[in-house]
Amino acid sequence: MTRDTEVPARVRRALARASALGFPGVCEDPMGPLLATLAAAVPPDGRILELGTGTGVGTAWLAEGLGQRDDVRLETVELDESLATAVRADDWPPYVTVHTGDAEALLPTLGRFDLIFADAVAGKWTGLDLTIDALAPGGLLVVDDMDLARYTDPRHRAAVQRVERTLADDPRLVVARIPAGTGLIISTRRPDRRPSRSRYS
């Protein structure tokens, strides 16, 4: 569990917004530090997409991983205008953009990303195929809330199983299930073709 002294200031502000607005859907340990770690590994000129901004907790962790880089873009999509407005009012690096709208409608217009964190209904529980299409070759897709034991409603359990099947059955992806936090699935999109030479040669 992340100790309070280890939580970055921007994350603490996002958590305070969640408390003030009565918003319960913030990402839980160990998701935050994991997002920061994955963001730090995004390649030069990389792009990150978050689906479901909420009060900006996940966004803040992603920005923490990117630090002062000026070659990256972090885009986050929130359906609720009031939440998006509250998040925009915070102090963000210039590479952060907060979109307002339905993720399924926006996904085809946003291009491809090296890291996607799917934490909303649209783009995860529905429209997952659009999210996978938006993943760049070699990119990572992170979905949380995949622990089936958390759900009692048969519809919710069916949704979790549908997401698991969609990811596992997609030949473009290599998938790992991680029994931590709320249940994670991390998928890597395979390269479109085998490179003719090493990028490090």
Automatic annotation (TrEMBL):
- Name of the protein described by the UniProt record: SAM-dependent methyltransferase
**Keyword annotations for this protein?**
Methyltransferase, Transferase
Q: What biological processes does GO assign it?
A: methylation
Q: Which organism is it from?
A: Verrucosispora sioxanthis
Keyword Protease listed: no
Against InterPro entries, the record matches this protein to: SAM-dependent_MTases_sf
Q: Which PANTHER family match?
A: PUTATIVE (AFU_ORTHOLOGUE AFUA_6G01830)-RELATED (PTHR43167)
Instruction: Output the superkingdom of the source species.
Output: Bacteria
A Gene Ontology MF term for this entry?
methyltransferase activity
